[in-house]
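#structure-requests
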Amino acid sequence: MAKKALHRSDVTCDGIVIKDSGFQVTENTVVCLDGQVISVVGERYIMLNKPVDTICSTIDEVYPSVLSLMDIEKIDTLHIAGRLDADTTGLVLITSDGQWSHKITSPKKDCGKRYLVELADPISEDLVAVFASGIELRNEDGLTKPAILELLSPQQVRLTISEGKYHQVKRMFAAVGNKVVNLHRECVGQIELDPELVPGDWRYLTQEEVDSIS
């Protein structure tokens, strides 16, 4: 049916007759069938600045889902690529593309996640090498993958990890005798949290940002 409509020149995109079934549309393309505007929802890629006391779930539970912050069509086709705890803030990526999100969450892909971390106690510079060698977590076999620890002040650091173990950042600092007070994700891969997004706001990713996950 769709091919017949294309063949009859019944389909236009932004006012231009389209006959190629492989023609690519974006969320901003105005698609018309026989002169009537139709809704076209392709794969979607979104960043959201997660506020505290929200959860990375598709449904509301103890806290509201981050998806409840979005007024968007066909929200049930979206899922969250990786999770943050309820008390963790910052960059969350949301998509309808399962293969794309797998590249973010799979430990085999080494997709780095960078966090700004505030700690209860001062941290020693010696731990930079310890984190780079891997940390032994309680009830886990072996060490974590090498992590990049950058000291910003005695009780504030940046940490980049390439895994997503349960409560990993908090457990890594607990393993060296410290406690995470505040945790904020700044970056996933090469995708930086847009500084113009206040907590709870979201936007579509640019094509360059989407393509940076490979």
